[in-house]
Amino acid sequence: MKPFHSIEDVWDYLDSIPMFQKSGTSATNFSLDNIRRFCERLGNPQDSYPSIHIAGTNGKGTTAYLLEKVYTDVGFKTGLFTSPHLLRYNERVRVNGEEITDAQLLEFFQEAAELLEEIRLSYFEISTALAFWFFDRVHVDLAIIEAGLGGRLDSTNIINPEVSIITSIGLDHQNVLGETLEEIAREKAGIIKKNKPVILGDISGGPLNRIAEVAESLNAQICKAELLHPKWDRGVVSLKGGSVWINTDFKESVNTWNVAMVWKVAEVLKDTFPITHGQLVQSIETFEGVPGRFEKLHPEFEWYFSGSHNAQALKSSLAAVEQMKPKAEAVLVFSGMKDKLTPDFFDHLQGFKKAYFIEQDGERAAKFEDISQFIDAELISENTKEIILNELKTELVIFMGSFYFYPIVKRWTTNVS
After folding, report:
1. What pLDDT, on the 0 to 100 scale, is given for residue 365?
2. What residues contact residue 84 under an 8 Å CB cut-off, 6+ apart?
3. Cα 214 from Cα 220, distance rounded (Å)
4. Of 175, 183, 304, 347, which one is least surrounded by beta carbons within 10 A?
5. Distance from CA of residue 61 to its chain's centroid?
C-alpha cells in the first residue's frame, strides 16, 4: 500500500475498495472479527464515550439526525455516524453538526496505514473505524451510531451503547437478513445489549415478539414509543394524549414515530444527559430535516427528493405526495438498483400524471430496459435533462429511488432557474 501523503491518496484508496452501492453484498463483510481486531489495535476507541445505537428498516437516519440536534442544542459535544454519504464521504462522520475535515480524515489514514495493510476492511468497516477513532480523538460526550445493514453482524455492533433503538421492521435486503419480517426483526434485535434498554418504534405482531424474546434473554428493558400515543396532523406531532404539541416541518407522517423515539431516548437518558421538555420541543421544531428524506430541492419549484427504496418507505412518501396534490396531478422521476425494482415496487409507482426514469452507473443500477416492461416511463439523459426540467417547473415533482440517485438529482436541479 502506498503511503497517504495527501487527501487525494485517501480518495484513491477508498475508490479502490468495492462499495455496496455498486457491488451489492459482495462488498460487505458479515462478520465482526476484522472490525473488532482492528479497533482493538486502535485501543478500542468506541469504548471511550457513551453511545446510542440505531437500527431499523426505515427511519434510523432521521432519528439519528434528530438526536444529534437535540443533544448538541443543549450543549453536549455530540458525534454522529451515518451512511451512505450523499455528496461527500465526510458526511458520514460529524461532531456538533460539522463534518470531519479532509485534514482529520488524512490523519486517520496516516495513523492507521500499517493496520489497514494488515487487516483488510470493507468500505463500511473503514468508515465505522474512522468514526470510532475520531469521536475518541475529539472527546465527544455522546456518539450516535447508525447501523448499516441489519444489526447483529453490522460492523457498528461492537459498541456497548447506553440505549439501543429499533425504528421499524420492513422487507428489505432479504437475501442477507431473512425472507420474513420475523427473521429480519431477529437480525435487527442483534444490537440489543445485556441490561441496556431498547426503544422500539412502529413495530408490532411477529416482529415485536421476536425482538421481545431477544430483549428478555438479555434482561433488556423494552421502551415502546407507542406508549406516548403519537399522533400526526399535517406536520403537527402530538404526544401523551395531546399534552405535548410539536410543530414540525416534516412532510411524511412516519416522522411521528421518529419524534416519539427521540422523546423516549430523552426520558431514558434523563439522568446522564438531562434535557427539559421545553428544550426537546424547541430542538425538534427548529430541525431543518435530513438531506434526501423528502427534501425540497429548489426554493421556487415544488420539487422533492425521497430516498425511498422499499415498500414501507414508498408508501410513506407517496402518502405525503397525496397530501399536497392528487397523485394523478403529480410527476414522478425515479431511478434505482436492479435488486430493488421488483413488480411490487412498480405497483406503488403507477398512477402518476407522467413518469421519467434516470439511469445510474454501476452493475447494480437498473437500466431502462429493466423497467420499461413494468411502467410507462420516459428516459431522461444528460442530453434531454434541461428540456424536461424546464417543462417541469410548474409541476409537483417527486424524485424517488435509492440515496445513490441523490447526487445526480442535486447536480441536475441545483442550477435550474
Report:
1. 85
2. 20, 21, 92, 403, 404
3. 8
4. 175
5. 3
Contact in structure between 169 and 94 (CB atoms under 8 Å): no
pLDDT at 178: 54
Distance of alpha carbon 71 from alpha carbon 149, whole angstroms: 25
CA distance 315 to 313: 6
Residue 141 DSSP class: S
Residue 375 CA to residue 386 CA, distance in Å, equals: 23
Handedness of CA 106, 111, 116, 122 (dihedral sign): negative
Cα distance between residue 46 and residue 79, in whole Å: 12
Question: Which candidate, 159, 169, 125, 140, places its Cα nearest to that of 35?
Answer: 125
One DSSP character per residue, 306-337 reads E---SHHHHHHHHHHHHHHS-GGGEEEEE--B
Task: For residues 373 and 6, give the distance between their C-alpha atoms in angstroms, rounded to a whole number.
Answer: 47
64: exposed, middle or buried (Cβ count in 10 Å: 0-12, 13-18, 19+): buried
The pLDDT tens digits of the residues spanning 284-318 come to 999 999 999 999 999 899 999 998 767 777 888 89
Residues constituting the chain: 417
Map out the domains of the chain with their CATH numbers: 7-285 (3.40.1190.10), 295-413 (3.90.190.20)
Q: Find out whether 181 and 154 touch, Cβ atoms under 8 Å.
A: no
- For residue 83, give Cα distances in angstroms to 77, 125, 315: 20, 11, 22
Looking at the DSSP bridge assignments, the partners of residue 52 are 144, 163
Tell me which residue of 255, 238, 216 sits closest to 65, measured CA to CA: 255
DSSP 142: E
Q: Which of 81, 23, 36, 77 is nearest to 339 (CA)?
A: 23
Q: Which of 49, 46, 98, 53 is nearest to 72 (CA)?
A: 98
